[in-house]
Amino acid sequence: GKLTGWTSPNDVMLKVAGILTVKGGTGAIVEYTGPGVDSISCTGMGTICYMGAEIGATTSVLPYNKRMRAQLVASKRLEIAELADEYHDLLTPDEGCKYDKVSEINLDELKPLVKGPFSPDLAHSISELGANAKKTAWPLEVKVGFIGSCTNSSYDDMSRAASLAKQALDHGIKAKSKFIVSPGAEQIRATIERDGQAQILRT
C-alpha cells in the first residue's frame, strides 16, 4: 500500500513499535522495504530512521529510490546522486536475502496513531484514544499541545499542523488549551514564515 490522507511516516514507526515493542529492535538493523516506501517523503524516511531508537534498533535503513535522488538533486548534490545511481545495487536489498524477522504493514490500512502514555509501544488510533483513556483512567484533559519534538518538527509536520489549525479556524473552533510550536531548525522556521504556515499557527 501507500501512505494516504493524514497518515504519516511517524505512524509507520508507531505501528512497528506496537509490533516489536520498545526492545524488539535491540541489537538489530531494521530495514524498511517494499512498494510503500516510494510513498514516503525523504523527510519522512529520516523520521522513521530517527525513531528507530523507540524500538532499540542499532540503526534503520531504507532503500535508495527516486525520492532520495530528487532530494539530492534539489539540494545541489548532483554528484552524490550520480554516485548513488552508479552503486544503486549496494543501496537496495539483495534479491532473495534472508532476515531474522519479517513484519508486514499494509500502508493502505494504517491509521493515524497516538502513542503512550508511559511507553512508545503503546499506540492508539485517534478514534480509539478517548475510549481507551476512559477505560484505563488516564487523565482526559489536554493542557498543552506541542509540535516540535525531534520527530515532529519538520516542514511536513508543520504543514500538517497548519492545515489542521486552518480547518479548525474555518469552522470557528477555538483552542481550549495552550499550543506550542517549535520548528526543528532555523531553515524550517524561515520557510514556514515564508509559506504562511507560521501565521496560521499563531492565529
TrEMBL record:
N-terminal signal peptide: none
GO biological process, one term: tricarboxylic acid cycle
Domain of life: Eukaryota
Gene3D superfamilies: Aconitase, domain 3 (3.30.499.10)
One GO CC annotation: cytosol
Domain Aconitase/3-isopropylmalate dehydratase large subunit alpha/beta/alpha: 1-202
Molecular-function GO term, any one: 4 iron, 4 sulfur cluster binding
Keywords of the record: Iron, Iron-sulfur, Metal-binding
Entries under PANTHER family matching the protein: ACONITATE HYDRATASE B, ACONITATE HYDRATASE, MITOCHONDRIAL
Protein name: Aconitate hydratase, mitochondrial
Species whose genome carries this gene: Parasteatoda tepidariorum
